[in-house]
Amino acid sequence: MKPYPRTGEMPDRRRLAGLPLESYAALGDGRSVALSGADGSIDWWCVPNMDSPPLFDRLLAEESGGCFIVAPRQPFTVARGYRPGSNVFETVFTTATGRAKLTESMNSGHAGRLPWCELARRIEGLDGTVDFELRLVFGTRADTICPFLARNDNATTFNAGEVTGLLRHSDGVTLDFEDDLEIRGSFTLRPGDRETVAIIAGENEPLIAASVEEIDRRIDIADAEWRQWSDDIGYSGKFGEAVNRSALALKLLLYSPSGAIAAAATTSLPEGFGSGKNYDYRYAWVRDASYTIKAFLRIGAKAEAKAAFSWLIKCLDTHGPHVCYDLQGGLAEDVREYDLPGYRGERPVVAGNQAAKQHQHGIFGDIFETAARFVGNGHILDRRSGAVLASLADLAVESWRTKDSGIWELSELRDYTMSKISAWQGLARAVELADGGHIPATCRDRWARGRDRIAAWIDANCWSEAKQSYVFHPGCDTIDASLALAVRFGFDGRDRLEKTIRAIDRELGAGPFHYRYGGVENDEGCFLACTFWVLEGLALLGHRDEAERRFAEVLAALDTGCGIYAEMVAPDSGTYLGNLPQGLTHLALIQTAATLSGQALS
């Protein structure tokens, strides 16, 4: 548990601006994710699923959004952190009159995920006396719903759109005010005192009115389940604490009803202030899911890797190759804007994603690399999966010459170098899978010829003698940081790859971090996964000592929050930017740490 270097002095519990993103911890149950801030306010929770409309949306509507506050009435400071090996989170509040500890959990049971959402918060007195307030505020989702309370013989429930919920609290909590938009309460803690408050919620379904005693016990059950999962992870290399925490973050993003892996748990958090780069990441990208599957395989999380891989193959079989899918396995929706002010006033606030209709050659490399790592770990491809993969290899060899939107999902179609490398990667792995008897080899020789033609085309068209680097696309002088991945992919040409990584450092580096590509410095922060890709590439090229030193520097620079990382960071201030928890960041960290530890790629 670490001190948080800000004071929670907010007498009316409203802030002048949203909390820094690095001040949020993520809670989850394999279905939904809640974000809990350093001021005791849960500001984001989509119920019942990660991609459902939010029950709490204060993150995107500071003055009018829904939230769930448990915090001292007096000014306070906090020390906070996850329990070791767990996604149960603890905060110690210190006031002028005493100290108290808040423990938070999205509860599960001994048999796994509960068939309802259960957000539990236990508060214990440690020293002195601390007066607490409780506030449950119901947002209106940009005035599209009208929340209301309903009373019957069994309980008072709240209704917000399709969600029905129940506030549970222990006897020492007094409810001081209730109306359709807000519930307020209070309690006082002394050493040894303990109170629990919780929300049970579901969507268009009956609710189990569990007792507060049951809910409180499930906090420790959930903690034990998280610890057992962590203990089973097969990673014993360097930077073990960071790897374990990133693995736990990735586990939060695995949507257990289907096996999909969400790119992040939020929408519309800005990649840069004033840029308008606000996107919905509550979808499963082929790229992110593939990389996460490989990370899970590398740390021994076999069940998660299998579930995600099966989901991915089924989506590709059902819908054909798309950039991303929804968490249930359908096609992603078009972008819709909502009339909300946005995080710190940054608009737009959106649902849906424009990448749904794009094509990226990267999906070929991603899915085939995943399949290769899956069988490389000794696992088995069934005949149907093999047939799906073979048909994708046919499509890759047929379409690699076409322009696409690239790994960065740009609106201008071009011959992006990284896209061509990904097509090469896909065909290279397809040939290996066919040679190993894992997929049908009916067009194996054609795949091999296509692989070799792509490599020759890249070397002839994408290398810049002036830059001493591969460039973003032929005819430009812009560098693309994602090209560092070519080292992991096994693309030929050690000398050119090393020069490319040095050019990325030279032209895109900002302190220990890196921008995605040239020209975005004024629009967005540094892309954290790119930095990890660069360091992994250096290690694979034989510069392990340098990469390890720089990796430690990056972790130290990011150590301003709870171990939950966003997509980007402002290099001058260390402020997090973009959606969170960001799966791509956490899985890139895991892969780099494993490479630095000398573990074989898997």
From TrEMBL:
GO terms for biological process: carbohydrate metabolic process. Gene3D superfamilies: 1.50.10.10. InterPro entries: 6-hairpin_glycosidase_sf, 6hp_glycosidase-like_sf, GH15-like, Trehalase-like_N. Residues 239-545 form the GH15-like domain. The keyword Hydrolase applies. SUPFAM superfamilies: Six-hairpin glycosidases. Residues 19-140 form the Trehalase-like N-terminal domain. It comes from the Bacteria. This is Glycoside hydrolase family 15. It comes from Aureimonas endophytica.
